[in-house]
Design brief:
The complex is a heterodimer of chains A (about 500) and B (about 325).
Chain A: E1 10-19, E2 22-32, E3 37-41, H1 48-55, E4 63-68, E5 71-73, H2 78-83, E6 86-89, H3 101-106, H4 120-134, H5 149-162, E7 167-171, H6 179-194, E8 198-202, H7 206-212, E9 215-220, E10 223-229, H8 235-243, E11 261-270, E12 274-282, E13 286-291, H9 297-305, E14 312-317, E15 320-321, H10 327-332, E16 335-338, H11 342-346, H12 353-358, H13 362-365, H14 374-386, H15 403-415, E17 421-425, H16 433-448, E18 452-456, H17 460-466, E19 469-474, E20 477-483, H18 489-496
Parallel strand pairs in A: 3-8, 3-9, 6-7, 7-8, 13-18, 13-19, 16-17, 17-18
Antiparallel strand pairs in A: 1-2, 1-4, 4-5, 9-10, 11-12, 11-14, 14-15, 19-20
Chain B: H1 5-12, H2 15-34, H3 41-66, H4 74-90, H5 95-118, H6 124-143, H7 153-160, H8 170-188, H9 190-200, H10 202-207, H11 212-238, H12 249-259, H13 271-290, H14 295-333
The chains are: A alpha/beta (about 500), B mainly alpha (about 325).
Chain lengths: ~500, ~325
Amino acid sequence: MARPDATPLLEVCDVVKSFGAVAAVRGASFPLYAGEAHALVGENGAGKSTVVKVLAGVHRPDGGTLRVDGKPVDFGTPGEAKAAGIAVIYQEPTLFPDLSVAENIAMGRHPTGRFGGIDRAAMRREALALFERLGVRVDPARPARGLSIADQQIVEIAKALAGRARVLVMDEPTAALTGVEVERLFAVVRALRADGAAVLFISHRFEEITALCQRVTIMRDGAHVSTDPIEDLTVPEMVRRMVGRELGALFPKQDVDPGEVVLEVSGLRRAGVFTDVTFQVRAGEIVALAGLVGSGRSEVVQAVFGVDGRDGGTVHVDGRAVRAGSPRAAMAAGMALVPEDRRQQGLVMDLSIQRNVTLPRSGALAGFGLLLGGAERREARRWTERLQTKYGDLGDPVGTLSGGNQQKVVLAKWLATRPRVLIVDEPTRGIDVGTKAEVHRLMSELAADGVAVVMVSSELPEVLGMADRVLVMREGRVVAEIDRADASEEAVMFAAMGQGVVA
Amino acid sequence: MSTDRAPRLLSRISWWDAAIIVVTAVVLAVAAGAVDNFGTGRNFGFLVLDLLPIALIALPMTFVVITGEIDLSVASTLGLTSAVLGSLWNRGLPMETIIPLCVLLGAVLGAVNGLFVTVFKLPSLAVTIGTLALFRGLAFVVLGDSAVADFPASFTSWVTGTIGTTPIPNVLVLLVLLAAVAGVVLHATPVGRAVFAVGANEQAARFSGIRVDRLKFWLYVVSGAVAGLAGVLWTLRYSSARADNGLGLELAVVAAVLLGGVSIFGGRGALPGVLAGVVLLATLQNALRLSDVTNEALNVVTGVLLIVSVLLPNLGRSLRAALRRRRHRVVRQT
């Protein structure tokens, strides 16, 4: 077991990593000892994934050191991390589907026979030995295609062991597994621990963490909060440490008397993604969809807006049904969607600011079917100025703007359609604090003007500051509806993680 | 602020468009000076007739390539409509009926491409290579190795004739008209805006309410219809309906479009550039043919132009990007 005086297998010391102006990790430190399973927990965006990528050699840290067996190492490539004995098992395994299980395990270090050919018998023996060590049964001869996610993870683990990995990093390995599969994975992890390997386990599920891990490191906003033995921490204490931030007056939502129901979603269903989603939004209301990444929030709003289809359920705006699978119909009904991914969904990066702002309205702006530039330019200028967007020329490609100004262009584009229902998905992701406050003020103003606002957000302070009501989603279902008065970070996080709502 | 106004305006006019227009002018001037018979009114007529099918088909092809797709079946559509035209004429239908039917046939063939690309979500390269073979094969089924030649002079002479006593070919008027329509639609209508948006980022276009599949489907229909019209004009020009009419023409069309500055990756391009590309390609071919260069050698020229036109804009873009980075760095340091 972990002993403070022993040399850790792997030690992370004050690792710092920034992307542009965004500090993703601001000083993460924790040791990993042989024979322990160590949980790494934190909210979305706390910096866990960045730490994983630093360990995997995908990102090079800007500062701090990694030590393996007490010796500092510097990984320039994933290959170097692998050579140092660190293997990362991702949520979505990356096997070659058309190669056999044994070939996947041996990939990159095929045993060769006498004449330089691949020694298939040796490959098979190695795979069988590894599976025996892990206590699982997988046929080494079958192709990787068609294996369940759980089996694919097992193969990934076998592959890591075949590469002499001593540190296994598992990034949310259980997210796609059933209960039985989780149990088997845990058995494998326990076997590895007994063998003297160290496992870094990332999960949002507290029951798994307490069942499997000996120690837990908590991160928040890119910084290290604490590393403690699991028995010293209660679940509520972990949640408090994960979310415990000062809630300033940064997110002012004006109080508005809600009007008529504008958006009514009922029984919305999309097979395998979300099911039975029902909610209403009144004029002047801001309703937040909270939940963990992958809980189905973005998928719900995309189906409401018609970018994705739906398998069942209805969407009404002002009492009129909106046709499924047609953004056109949704726009005609008065809906607007500011999507999650600005670069891929919100904007056409190569096109000018002007063209981007007027894209949804080019038909309405044309005179006699023609667009001669003047109307587009005036419209674009009006809305970008209203949002105080900073740019050189309306003809510049929108990709030349900063993230915050790009987000303002997306907002301008949709506000220009004068929506009755504004859906915003992660409206302030990756933008600076000042612009964030502007976006929040704008949403509040819109609500005051009688727009029904639906906000998907992973930032709890934003959710709590802006929303009149919070709908919490977990695994494709709305699991809780919390009024503004009752909403607290703990209540939302508990619901999002499946711990039930606490008063 | 006011100092960088001018270069910004300049940079908006695509340097490639400017270059291609200059090169075309130079080639025209050199050909007029150095090649015997190039500058004659008679040759001007031939030149226009030579470039007519390429130019016509290049118009919708420009739209298709800007959306990020391609239509390689156009020359086979031309061949099939030509064969059907001959066959229907043999059966005694009047030309006034046959011509609209042929354009309609082209539209239907285009719809087949559109269906496979938008409904079955197959890559357009594969689909239109398939229909390239399929339509050409059908052309041979319809007409075999034979040719139909006895078309009424009133039709054939209109295609090869000029306006009154001027050297301006009748078909040039048709071409200018269609090119003007295509230019306006591409650069000054909501449809044109959608075409560029789809080519630059299809997902964002969809999120903006653009009906991407519908747009692409109709572009293929128009592409087929125009190829059908080109088939009619081709047949009447040579007064010969044959299954192998226009064989390999799709390469010349794609070369002209890319030469005209349209990005093979979609999202970029302009119609004036494409027209210059067509003129450049046709002029080179015409001048070389007048200089007794063989058809095989002409194919070499087409191939080289195609590769150059894909290579150069990419080189140019990375060069300019490098320059911009350097300028930014200098600005930041000062």
